[in-house]
Automatic annotation (TrEMBL):
Protein known as: Uncharacterized protein
Residues that span the membrane, as ranges: 34-53, 65-86, 98-117, 129-149, 170-189, 201-221, 233-250, 262-281
Organism annotation: Terrabacter ginsenosidimutans
Region (Disordered): 1-23
Compositionally biased intervals (Low complexity): 12-21
Length: 292
């Protein structure tokens, strides 16, 4: 025996291994797809009710919405959202859908806030209200959690990916920022917006329409990532929404206050943005095709 006494024996177990690194392969996680599968039929049902029967919201929806133009504007967001989440289910690359989830989170959170503020305006005795409340009290957290989890598998940009040019990048970011500011003003200060708006609003519907505008904030993704792959689906959703809004303006033209300057500014702005978005999508898709 050694004079120093018994020597310590080496551990029979190896040191604890660090957890395996996350595989950054830019895939859409199964949980994100499942959430999208759940949301699509809800959004499509709401679209059919609000766009197909805008005068019957008192009977079919969570609360009575007047005039008809407001439910059609909200319906446009629902069909755009349905198209977005259908793509989430089908897409393989997280980069193609990631930009939209944060704007959806903001939209849902603002509608949840409006529900709390205007609780007395809702038809509490109807299943449609409890579905509305359940959706907007949970969706902000579920969508944000899906985005956060999926960000862990984000892959670095590919060297051959098509990028948005500097001029288009500025225009897209400016439009997205303007939509976000407009929406937040409508949510925070409905009393300042209602007297000048293009059609009749209440404090509740002003905040709802403001939440729809805030969906445009998805375009701000170009400030930190100028790849076309990040923006393409956002442009498609914008085209769906603007087309439906303009058709709604035509269907419910009697609801418009034609003596207010903002009416013509909105109509012109929606039409110009739709034309520009279609041209931009076609131009970028052509570049993408030639480079691929």
């Amino acid at each position: 025996m050694s004079p120093a006494g018994p020597q310590p024996q080496p551990s029979a177990q190896p040191a604890a291994q660090s957890s395996a690194p996350v595989r950054r392969d830019d895939r859409v996680l199964p949980a994100t797809r499942i959430l999208a599968v759940v949301l699509v039929p809800i959004l499509l049902t709401a679209f059919v009710i609000l766009y197909g029967f805008p005068a019957d919201t008192g009977r079919l929806f969570a609360w009575t919405i007047r005039p008809r133009l407001t439910p059609m504007v909200l319906a446009s967001a629902y069909l755009g959202g349905a198209w977005f989440f259908v793509r989430v289910v089908r897409e393989r690359r997280w980069a193609r859908v990631s930009a939209g989830l944060l704007s959806v989170t903001l939209f849902a959170a603002l509608l949840g806030l409006a529900t709390v503020i205007h609780w007395d305006r809702f038809n509490h005795g109807r299943p449609a209200f409890w579905l509305w409340a359940a959706l907007y009290f949970t969706a902000p957290f579920l969508v944000l959690a899906a985005w956060w989890a999926n960000q862990r598998v984000t892959a670095p940009p590919r060297p051959d990916e098509v990028c948005v040019g500097p001029v288009a990048r500025v225009v897209v970011a400016a439009g997205a920022g303007l939509a976000l500011v407009q929406g937040l003003v409508m949510v925070a200060l409905p009393s300042a917006v209602i007297p000048v708006w293009a059609w009749q609003l209440t404090p509740l519907t002003c905040r709802v329409v403001g939440a729809v505008f805030c969906l445009g904030s998805a375009g701000l993704v170009v400030l930190r990532d100028r790849r076309w792959v990040r923006l393409r689906l956002m442009v498609e959703v914008e085209v769906v929404m603007l087309t439906l809004m303009l058709l709604g303006l035509g269907r419910a033209h009697d609801d418009l206050y034609t003596d207010r300057p903002l009416t013509w500014l909105l109509v012109t702005g929606f039409a110009a943005t739709l034309v520009a978005s279609l041209w931009f999508w076609r131009a970028m898709a052509g570049i993408e095709h030639r480079s691929g």
